[in-house]
Amino acid sequence: MAFISFPPTPVPTLDLFNFSPASGSPGSQINISVTLLNTQVNGIKFNGTPANFFQLQNGQYTAIVPFGATTGPISLQTGSGSILTSNTNFTVTGSSTGSPSITGLSPLSGPIFSELTINGTNFANLLGVSINGVPAQVTYATGTQIVVLVPSQATSGPVRVETVNGIAVSSQVFTVLTGNGALPGISSFTPTGGSTGTIVTVSGSNFSNVQSVKLGQTSVFFGVFSNTTLQFSVPANATTGFISVTTPAGTATSSQPFVVQTNLQIPTISSFSPTSATVGATVTVNGSGFVNVSQVKLGDLQAGFNVLSPNTLQFQVPMGASTGKITVTTDTGTVVSQASLQIPPVAAGPQIFSFSPPVGNPGTLVSIQGSNFSSVTAVTFNGIPGVITTLLPELVIAKVPEGNFQGKISLLSPFGNATSAGDFLASAPTPKITGFTPSKGAPETDVTLFGENLQDVFEVRFAPGILADLKSIAPDGKSLVTTVPNGAINGGIKVTSPAGFALTPTIFEVDNSNNLRFTSFSPTLGPAGTDVEIIGTGFSTVEEVKFNGKVADFDIIDSGMIIATVPPDATSGFITLRRGIEEIFSPDPFMVTPFALRIDSFNPTSAKPGENVTIFGNAFTSITRVKFNDTPATFQVLSETKIRATVPAGVTKGPLSVKNSQGQTAVSAQEFSPNISVPSISQFTPVSGAPGTQVLITGSGLSNARQVLFGRFDAQFTNVSDTLVRAFVPDFARTGAITVITDNGTAVSEGIFTVLK
Known about the structure:
By secondary structure, this protein is mainly β. The chain is built from no helices and 82 strands. The strands form 20 sheets. The chain has an 8-stranded mixed β-sheet, with no helix packed on it.
């Protein structure tokens, strides 16, 4: 058999590609420029270690220095099979083999689903990150920096990073913002206007983590005094504008602008009304220049005041006040009214001599005797407001309020209050439940309770404390009708009246089989295409599933489970289920993450069945299947970015694909070419023999042999290896060549086997 030899493929020299910079740490980017025209790069290695890379444009590539790489040349594998190797070495700096360490966190606090950046060293071969023990999703990672999303179940505590080389725990504590992580809100601010230096008090909610405060477009210095109060000073360059407060959760803006006064004037008083008032009355003062008012006086007594505008303010006549002039003081001066506010002589306060009866149920009329009752404005029983039905100078008749109490009777007046010497005892009958019907039912079922003293019941609750509709109460107080509320569970029924409460003697059973309820979902985050398992009740007739308003495909598994697929246009937000006009929301939002599963490259790109191929990519931790052009293969997940797969028998040319436990699939852009050898026979021994003789046939590509012929007669045979077949000379065989037929072709021996008879 003749053999033809071919010269080896020439290796291009260094000037066919360039790289920069000349050194870098694992995870850094290196720019590579190929100057040889029409050269397609299929693989890049750093001193033999495969690297992830992507093409920027024709001839321009960016490679990521792989973890585990060492100093040495860079090599490029071209589409034609040639290898381009640099004549100069790339220097790998830093260390990717030591134990990890955390040098800092940024920020040190934030709400759930916010980003946390972890800085440190030796983050190569990352296994996982957790916040106070709760695993966090990694969105970005290099050898020196990791970015994660704060998980929904996270609590405040240290951050833990685990790699194949060890574990690092932060010395700093990351604070998870819960209640304080809600959006801030501004309810009011005072004063409503002022000049430079004016102290403005802002009231609202969720101020615990304020990052900045602005007046219009101008940032201001501020101080936070509580979760609901902050103050700032009007800066010199400020102009009239809205107040905004920014926290990690968002920004709140005031509904009204703050008026910056640039031309302040000395205050003036033009009038006030009324011109005569009693203690506690409100007086309105009109004038100008009421900006940054610091004090209002009536005579020598300070009064509480409220500035309504630069031209109007109000104050209350203080206790002990007498006729006098009104004084207003601001930052720019003081003004005194020309006229005096008239304060009439103070009348004598009320006095209580006696009352009757001393005991009664709610609604009982009580007669109170005394003097100076003309100015009485209200009555209380043990501090509980009652109702005045009759008011005379020496007699007040009042109705006892609801409740079960014992305490003093008080009459309230602008000229003083009067309190009884003795106590009044309110004794209302306590409700009692003896039974109910039916004993069980679904939400919206009417339930009748039986008992005593139910006429004053004002509230009914079903377990676990859900308020129910109170439809009717019998006039004799011996029964009432209520309705089972949505969300109720098996348990007692509680009724409440002013005199107390009562519980049913037995448990009411709730049939929730058709009650639409959203209990939980899993997973809590993922990219578009993720299958989400939704758990609850009443799902049999669900008509629509949405992810943050985007309609999703779904399958109803049973009344307690739905599997929905995150739609392509979905964004992070709550999941909603609709049945008719009824709509319910998930207890927590679903986070839509970028589609992470992908195949970047694989090596080698051609191999024989049984040989290993390394697949490089991202998000490989939950891989459930690997295929070579639709042929399943055995595999081992080595890391988040690496899989080792074995080329399966019967493989054909085509792309590689991986699938994870969330149902996501990634397909390689490059095709795998199986390395299949055409069979050949180099020799056989013995070279002669009678039928039944064992003959050892050696060569190559013999592993898939499916037929062996001696001449034209089939022989029994056994595949021993790719290079050896054991055959037996068949009956009726004739002297001639030996033929081996495989899946990849046919091999015929050059020599002749002699059959001995």
